[in-house]
Structure formats: C-alpha cells, structure tokens
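Researcher: Next entry: Biosynthetic peptidoglycan transglycosylase (Mesorhizobium sangaii).
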Amino acid sequence: MSRRGLKRWVRRGIVVAAVLALIPTVLTFLYLPSFVHPVSTLMLKDLATFSGYDRRWVSIDDVAPVLANSVIMSEDGQFCFHRGVDLGELRGVVDDALAGEATRGASTITMQTVKNLFLWSRPLGSVRKVVELPLAVYFDAVMSKRRIMEIYLNIAEWGPGIYGIEAAAQHHFGVSAKQLSRRQAALLAVSLPNPIARNPAKPGPGLRRLANLIERRAGRSGAYVGCLQ
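Model: Predicted structure:
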C-alpha cells in the first residue's frame, strides 16, 4: 500500500472512531427524559434474530423500593457515592492482577448500564472494558442516579428473553414490580450476575444463602440508597 493510501485509511479510521464515540454521547442526552424508554444491545440482537423478548417499561416510582435497595447492596454498594466507576474496587482488581491472584468483579451499576445500552459483551472483551470506563463516568455526570437506576432496572436481563424488572417480576413470581416482597427482591437481585443460570423462582441452596445476606443488607441500607430518594 502506498503512503498516500495508508494516510487515507488512517483518516477513515479516525472518522469511524469519532462517529462511534459520538453515538453514545448523543444517545445519553436523548435518554435523559423519563418518557424515553431505551433498549439494550441484547434486546436489539433478539429483534434482529427474530427471537423476541418480554420487556415492559415501568417507572422507578412503580417499583418496590426494596428491589432497588437489594440491587444496590448486591451489585454496587457504593452506587450513591462514586462517579460511575468505583476507584477503590478498581484498584483492588489491578492489585490482584499484578499479584497474580484471581480478580474479583469491579463493574458498577453505571458501568453495567452503559455496557447494556451501547456495547456488546463479546467479542470485545478487555477492549470493551477500556471503552466502558470513560462512558460510565460521562453517563454518571449527565444522568441523575435515580434515572440511571430506572434505566438499569428496565434493561437488565433476568432470564432468556426476559428484560426489565416488570417482566421479571411477572415471569418469576406472578406479581408486579411494585408488589415484590423483600424475599423476592433479594432473589431477583442475586440472580443478576448470571440470569441464565440462576433462577430466582427456583433457587438452589447457594442462591438462597446469597438472598438471605442481601435481604439483611437491604433492610439496613440507609444512606447507601439515599440518592434514590
């Protein structure tokens, strides 16, 4: 390839990268109003493959508060205090990796939200994580914590083809999101890390133990969930 041709491809690559970076920036502002109901990339994939899915958008005002409290205590205890990325958890992951130890997850609710909205889980892998971090900081700066939680609860996957807390509550327990009990909320929260393998309606011993822990923590969540008030 000639030098001129190489420069042309580099310029095209820069333009493509700029456009791809602009898409989530613009969409974030479009998602600010509460009447806008975003969809996730997984939902788009289900549509593209004609798989279909069940998602029934519900306002955070119509979700039992104990559900959001349980999700915070299970997924991201510092949600109300960090700015999209939990630097303390992130440092711990880096330290563990440098020491050759098994790393733990450091993904915040905001990071999971931008991943679900704008990115694919595979095949990007570690590249996705690099993109996810600045996106989460930006998303947190633009959105209120309450709106972030509302979007997250409405796009999170809770089983094959089951998206959002209203569809999940109806599918697993036959009640609305507003009617969820403390126990049901805890079971739904602890199933989030692996919603395909973990069934909140038929929990095994391990899932029940996790739910017991989160149910207790949610009951004492206090200031940890203050940003949702």
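Model: Note for the record: The beta strands are 54-55, 162-163.
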